[in-house]
Design brief:
Length: 592
């Protein structure tokens, strides 16, 4: 399962879009449905091929910014929504500030209501603003949830988004931030949240504040499970806990694995201004928790936060600091130390800031090498989101925005060459391995790496497939003789495609013709109607000489062929945009 949160200005169609994608109603309350405005977190899900994608739908109104942060905080990716007829608005900016503060690096821009206005201007404006955030350049899709326009393209973009997400850590300790609690008759208290790492098993003991609790039952997307691993939307039935004893902002923890803290040393990135301009009283958002804090500058962009109540935090956690007076995001922050020492002497604050900066510098190379080695390959922006500096280092292999462990890079090359060799041996009619198949086989996290990997392994890459460099000269094995006869026939009669009995006589069935097409030696107009690759261009020279517009009969006579060939050939030219079909009986050659 994958989890994506929505973001965007109020009334720009976030819930309508989720409803169109999933067929589910994310607004749970009658008031929300009556007013047409989301006021609490909503949940829905859908399938994308073999993948399941769960949405956390957040409110867009400024009064519910804390609720929005509770939904966005634990999510690994964001679906940013802007309306074509309104463009970038105040809460668009506010939500983007939250995304940037959280350091999210995976997202997708959707321009809704594209049936009401040309989406181009809103898309260009939104992409420019988003490019300045931690998301950087993101794919953009214009849609209309009302007419359905663009939804297939959006689902395809979502599939690619979840493919690009880093693999979750399903081992280790659990910290499940609660975003909702309620009671089910006969079951008791149930809490929900986004499980970002680790795994939960029915019967596990967890820690809630300072008391132990036990998992009575587990659900994900409405189905019971014995065990659930990250990343997932989960519902946890707790034994012996009253509903008023747990709620949004609490965390279910692996026992004795977390030490809640009331002091944090953090590095701030102020949304608009300087650290010195921040108010002393702020609200800290971590996961689904919102806790008042008092800020004390230490030096530069490093500050100490004193929390009103302790939270289970660790170095590397991303925080949002909100100004409650302005109802606005004031800064983002990264936790440097979750158990800082007291500051008792004169000058201790400045010395502490210097010590933290030096510790970051010393640890940077070690953290980078460790993260890349552990993952095999890591995107530079993902590491930056974890607080890992990513200056170029000779100990890692650099491929675009990716950093790869050198030993892993060599291992992948060997496995890719072996996979292509096996494909050539076992499937001579189709010796090319698709990039996606190779990526999954090797466990490579992104297609961009696969293309570079093929070049490093001295393999050929074209049309989304990888093959041996000489695969074009390997022929079709036992079908090669028949293919040569077909090529000779079409060289002399470009538009007289042989009929099925003649193809069968040459040993050319559907599989052989498809293989010849993949290798670029034929163009198939229909399953058993084929021309040479030069055939369509030759046909265009003949058709351009006719009086325009022309009929199908005139085209057939000029090409000296039959309706069996002429009709699919003309449809092929229509699809390529070389000819224009005016009505049922007339076409013309596109000029210019």
């Amino acid at each position: 399962m994958h989890v994506v949160a929505t973001a965007g200005h109020v009334d720009h169609g976030k819930s309508t879009l989720v409803r169109a994608l999933t067929g589910m109603e994310p607004d749970r309350f009658a008031e929300e449905q009556r007013r047409g405005m989301t006021i609490d977190l909503g949940y829905a899900w859908t399938t994308l091929g073999a993948e399941t994608l769960a949405f956390v739908d957040v409110p867009g109104h400024e009064r519910f910014i804390a609720t929005m942060l509770a939904g966005l905080g634990p999510a690994p990716a964001v679906l940013f929504v802007v309306a074509a007829d309104e463009g970038w608005r105040r809460q668009s900016e506010e939500h983007l500030a939250a995304v940037d503060a959280l350091g999210l690096t995976h997202g997708l821009l959707v321009v809704t209501r594209s049936d009401l206005a040309d989406p181009g201007a809103a898309m260009d404006q939104a992409r420019r603003r988003i490019a300045e955030s931690s998301l950087g350049q993101v794919p953009a899709v214009p849609v209309s949830a009302t007419t359905g326009h663009g939804l297939p393209e959006l689902r395809a973009a979502l599939r690619q988004l979840v493919i690009d997400l880093p693999s979750p850590q399903r081992e280790g300790r659990v910290r499940l931030w609660v975003d909702r609690s309620f009671t089910i008759r006969g079951a008791g208290t149930v809490v929900t949240g986004t499980l970002g790492s680790g795994s939960l098993t029915r019967g596990d003991e967890l820690q809630l504040d300072d008391r132990p609790v036990r998992i009575r039952g587990l659900q994900a997307l409405g189905e019971n499970h014995e065990q659930i691993g990250a990343v997932a939307r989960v519902a946890v039935n707790l034994r012996g806990v009253e509903v008023d004893q747990v709620g949004r902002g609490d965390a279910l923890l692996t026992p004795d694995a977390w030490r809640p803290t009331g002091l944090l040393d953090v590095r701030c990135a102020v949304h608009d201004g300087e650290v010195s301009q921040l108010p002393a009283e702020l609200v800290l958002h971590l996961g689904t928790a919102a806790v008042p804090v008092r800020m004390r500058p230490l030096g530069g962009d490093v500050v100490r936060l004193t929390l009103l109540r302790p939270l289970p935090a660790e170095p590397g956690d991303r925080l949002v600091l909100r100004d409650p007076g302005r109802h606005a995001v004031a800064a983002g922050a990264v936790v440097l130390d979750a158990a800082p020492p007291p500051l008792r002497r004169r000058g201790a604050a400045a010395a502490r800031a210097v010590a933290l900066a030096e510790a970051e510098r010393v640890d940077a190379a070690t953290a980078l090498a460790d993260q890349v080695r552990r993952r095999g390959a890591a995107r530079r922006t993902d590491l930056q989101a974890l607080g890992v500096p990513t200056a170029d280092d000779s100990s890692v292999h650099v491929v675009g925005d990716w950093l790869v462990d050198p030993d892993t890079w060599q291992h992948w090359q060997q496995r890719l060459r072996a996979a292509v060799d096996e494909r050539t041996r076992s499937t001579p009619l189709d010796p090319r391995l698709t990039v996606e198949a190779a990526r999954r086989l090797l466990g490579v996290p992104h297609r961009e790496l696969l293309v570079a990997l093929a070049e490093a392994a001295q393999l050929a890459h074209a049309d989304g497939r990888i093959s041996q460099p000489n695969s074009q000269s390997l022929g079709l094995g036992s079908a090669e003789v028949g293919l040569v006869q077909l090529e000779q026939h079409l060289s002399q009669n470009p538009f007289r495609a042989p009929e099925k009995p003649e193809l069968d006589q040459w040993g050319l069935g559907v599989r052989e013709l498809a293989a010849a097409e993949r290798s670029g030696r034929l163009v198939r107009l229909a399953p058993d109607v084929v021309l040479l690759p030069t055939g369509p261009a030759q046909a265009m020279r003949v058709l351009a000489a006719l009086s325009q517009p022309f009929t199908t009969s005139q085209a057939r006579q000029a090409l000296e062929t039959t309706r069996r060939v002429a009709i699919p050939l003309l449809e092929h030219l229509d699809r390529r945009g070389w000819t224009i079909r005016l009505d049922a009986g007339h076409r013309q050659v596109r000029r210019g």
